[in-house]
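User: Structure please.
Assistant: Input sequence and predicted structure:
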Amino acid sequence: MAEQQLQEAGYSPIHFTSLFPISQYITIGPNLNKHAVASVGKAKAAPVENLNQLRAVLNGSAKLLILDLEFFQAGNQNHIFQLAGRVYNQAEKFNYYFFNSQQTDTRQLQFLRRYDVPFSQAQQFTVKHQLPRIIKLVDSLAPDYLVSWDNSQDFKALQRAANRLAIPKQNRFWNTVQAIDLEKLVAQQVWNGQKALGLKKMCQLLNLPPFKFHQAQHDVRAIEAILKFYSLDLSRELLV
């Protein structure tokens, strides 16, 4: 695949602007051009094992970072193409898209056109180049907890990528920050240990507003809405 294919496919010439249309990074405070101070040695927060503990954490001073990854499949393996995060009940959020030459030509062309990036610059938006940047960003946010809706596939994919890049284990935030798998927690506490529902079905059961599911930036909003539901003391709320 080459830039000539863009013209053959009917796309207008693309002009490179900046890195940030891809990252769509929105946050308050940290400057990513400065080296983030690593939180090596910081003790993990206490694990959250039930909904009462979750409610206490949500209503306390801990910082929770909600994460969601989206994948495409190639070569019998899942590859990351989007990673989004937002700090619970605060303004900080980010949304990264990744370019991968194993994506279909159509998806590559869509990526290049949507984010105004020429093919010659696309390698700057691969997992190889973006993951270290994201690790630095998460470290600067210094969350106490990582919250996901089923984190098993997400963390495995991050681990594979970090292994390929030889990133030290102590610098991998999914290793060092206490994780909360909200899907498993709800399954244990609400569904008596049975397999939990998908994110969309869970939102429907809680009568939450509709979200554009399977888009990472919208999935993190859905997870935040579920967290806000469980932050309530339902016995007190029902009496009011």
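The longest helix spans residues 127-141.
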